[in-house]
From TrEMBL:
Pfam families: 2_5_RNA_ligase2. InterPro entries: Cyclic_Pdiesterase. This is RNA ligase/cyclic nucleotide phosphodiesterase. PANTHER family: PTHR36039, RNA LIGASE_CYCLIC NUCLEOTIDE PHOSPHODIESTERASE FAMILY PROTEIN (PTHR36039:SF2). It comes from the Eukaryota. It comes from Lupinus luteus.
Length: 188
């Protein structure tokens, strides 16, 4: 049984591979392999909820098909590495340089969800949303400095494109569907 759903923004293959490279380096050094183990895909979370009042996946798919078809792929530049000070899972992330196109995409999605009666938590509203792409989770506390040092060697900035929007169910993590931005084509 699903505990919740998330709407995620996925990258072009070259950018996705750059993020996966960092995951694999951390795994080879036995710092963390959590994101690999849960079979996550590199992404920026646009919305997440474990509310029982969330729309059914079929309704979300209808809404997101229209949303994806009216939004083109957008450039993404990861320019810094960060960690949330209140995070309990000892995580690191890549932070994209905020762009008007990324912020507009987020704003449009929140407006669309609100029109459908979905309660959008403040953390996903435009004035407080912090876009990020996880690169390490569940890092042992005594290895945080080492993980940061490994990630600092990651050649930033890294440029690419956000190409797809998808819905995942959690936990366990399972992709429900994804859609190519700028078209009505669903990804398998």
């Amino acid at each position: 049984m699903s505990q919740g759903y998330a709407i995620e923004l996925y990258f072009d293959p070259a950018l996705e591979n750059q993020v996966l490279k960092s995951w694999n380096i951390l795994a080879r050094r036995q710092i963390t392999s959590h994101l690999i183990q849960i079979q996550s895909r590199p992404h920026i979370t646009l919305f997440s909820s474990n509310s029982p009042n969330l729309l059914e996946p079929s309704t979300l798919q209808t809404l997101l098909t229209s949303f994806a078809s009216t939004n083109d792929p957008l450039p993404i530049t990861f320019s810094s590495i960060g960690s949330f000070p209140t995070s309990n899972d000892n995580a690191f992330f890549l932070s994209p340089t905020p762009s008007i196109s990324l912020l507009n995409l987020q704003s449009q999605l929140c407006d669309l969800l609100k029109k459908e009666g979905v309660d959008v938590a403040s953390e996903y509203c435009l004035d407080s949303w912090v876009p990020y792409c996880s690169v390490a989770q569940n890092v042992p506390k005594q290895r945080m400095a080492e993980a940061f040092s490994v990630l600092r060697d990651f050649k930033l900035p890294v440029n690419g494109y956000a190409m797809d929007v998808g819905v995942v169910e959690f936990s366990p993590l399972r992709e429900v569907f994804s859609l190519v931005l700028g078209s009505n084509v669903e990804q398998p």
